[in-house]
Specification:
Elements (H helix, E strand, L loop, with lengths): L3 E2 L6 E2 L4 E5 L3 H6 L7 E5 H14 L3 E4 L4 E4 L2 H20 L2
């Protein structure tokens, strides 16, 4: 087996050190009634950095201004949250 490339940073690595990552976690896509989301192949550095990014950027609660309270996001909203967070992270990595 040859070397493979991280889809975000372009670093070549041995296949065993790369991670297949689903942009939207499987449990969220299942709750939304979807098949699995798009997957990407990432080096361990980008994978770890992306998970930290998700922790900071994805919110499971939404604020309802008219009711002046927070409510849990729906599965469809969570899918959009993960997709938007991934796009922002990929753009950030391209700018480095």
């Amino acid at each position: 087996m040859g070397r493979k490339t991280c889809e975000l940073c372009g670093r070549e690595s041995e296949p065993r050190s790369l991670v297949t990552h689903y942009i939207v976690p499987r449990e969220v896509t299942r709750l939304a009634g979807m098949s699995d989301s798009t997957s990407v192949v990432l080096c361990s550095n980008c994978y770890t950095e992306l998970l930290a990014w998700y922790d900071k950027k994805i919110y499971s609660m939404a604020y309802e201004p008219e009711m002046k309270r927070f409510r849990p996001r729906s599965p469809d909203e969570m899918v959009r949250e993960y997709e938007a967070a991934y796009r922002a992270f990929a753009e950030y990595k391209r700018g480095q």
